[in-house]
Amino acid sequence: MNEINNNMQGHSVMSDKKISFEVNPLDVNLAKIQYSLLSRCEREVPENGDFAPVVEEYESKDPTKDLSNVKICCEFNRKNPGIKNSSRNLTLTFYNRDKSKQENKILYSGSKEGLIKYLNTSNFFTDCKTSICR
What we know:
Layout: H1 2-8, H2 25-44, E1 54-59, E2 69-76, E3 88-95, E4 102-110, H3 112-119, H4 122-132
Antiparallel strand pairs: 1-2, 2-3, 3-4
Helix pairs in contact: 2-3, 2-4
């Protein structure tokens, strides 16, 4: 232990150098949406059958991006309810600044268990960010 202490003398653990980094509002808000969706889907989405859509939204205030709104919705797959009674779709929708253009992407389709696993991974964040920033 003395060797470590002797080696540490004269060396400041905290550096005087300032580390600067930029916080990306889109990243922060996608992380908030991910956390909120995970929590809500665990509570509000049943294993089987229909349910009320679970929606989380973010309104971008960043004037440097051609992005106004991001919406992520988890809903029952109504297109083929008889084929897959347990199908849940997670859809990303985003709009450009003047809302003249809307894009939709299904991020996940499958069971509640698979949905929760997907929301627990970085794939959700990466898929959203890749779709929005292309």
